[in-house]
Amino acid sequence: MKTIILISKDNVLIGTLKSLLENFYNIIVFGTIQSAIEFIYHSIPNLLIIDAVSNDYTIIEILNTLKGDPIFTHLPVLIIMEDHKRMNVLGTVSADDFIIKSEVLSELKARVELCLNRVERVVEINPLTRLPGNISINRQIQNRLDSGIIFAIAYADLDYFKPFNDYYGFSRGDEVIKMTGRIILNTVKQYQPEGSFVGHIGGDDFVYLMDVDKIEEATKSIISSFNTIIITFYEESDRENHYITSIDREGNKRVYPIMSLSIGIATNKKRSFRHFGEMTGIASEMKKVAKNSNGLKYMIDRRQG
Fold first, then answer.
1. CA torsion sign, 262 to 277 to 41 to 118?
2. Whole-angstrom Cα distance, residue 205 to residue 105?
3. What SS3 state is found at 55?
4. Which domains does the chain have, with CATH numbers?
């Protein structure tokens, strides 16, 4: 079920909106946009509905900052206003649609569906993690290269995910993927709130872009957090054994250790790249090296040329 965040202090409006939408969507209510920000960053919703307050320029500032972030550009925003005059007040806000309160009963559901359908047609989003997909990832990398920006790219994936998925089932596997996406997103935004980017290639593969001087510490934190949490997805007997027994691709029984996260990092600080594929290729190469390392499994390409 798709998740909609509703921001309002009007209990009557909240009750009306919930009666119109809660049979179709998961509705989560916050009193202010400030109180909702942590949830939005932690678990990207499908739609944001805001009950706008006259002359509240904090809404404009926070929304414009949020929508200016490449990760949240695709997040649709529907603003509810008292009357048409409010549109002049909020004319500079990054909203996808507006609706006045007198039209809520007759038009809200249609407007919500329009916002959701529009973003699904225009923007490529991974349905599981709500993170941008391959097209957005490649565009973000290429734009930085074309602009001459010095940055780093990290390519992350899970070790022994398929045996886990086969052993415990797709539902628990999906929860691991979502958890991994949340850890990466939250950590990247913690270390670099602006100018960073997180994308989900698909399956258990993720990419994030950061400043060169921030990405190593963020990567250490990501792996450490993952190692702490992943053990909770295993049953007690498997946690005690530190392995599971599953079937490999040849149909043979094999022992697989607890999942880990391997990350390869490439930068254009000491070597130049013309195409996003060149840079992601180096990051992928470093990821393969990281898989065979001990401790925190990450590897940075430090070659020049």
1. negative
2. 42
3. coil
4. 3-122 (3.40.50.2300), 134-300 (3.30.70.270)
Both tokens assigned to 234 = 């295993």
Question: 91, 141 in Cβ contact below 8 A?
Answer: no
Which residues 6+ apart lie within 8 Å of 222 measured at CB? Answer: 156, 183, 184, 187, 188, 261, 263
Q: How many residues does the chain have?
A: 305
Q: 200: pLDDT confidence band, cut at 50, 70 and 90? A: very high
Helix (H, G, I), strand (E, B) or coil at 29: strand
Q: Is the pTM of this model over 0.90?
A: no
Per the listing, tokens 């600080």 go with 269
Phi, psi values for residue 155, rounded to 5°: -115, 120
Please state the separation of Cα 70 from the chain's center in Å: 10
Tell me how far apart the alpha carbons of residues 79 and 81 are, in angstroms, rounded to a whole number: 6
Distance of CA 232 to the CA centre of its chain: 22
Strand partners, 159: 260
pLDDT value of position 295: 83
CA-wise closest residue to 17 among 62, 54, 50: 50
CA distance 13 to 188: 36
Residue 220 confidence class, pLDDT cut points 50, 70, 90: very high
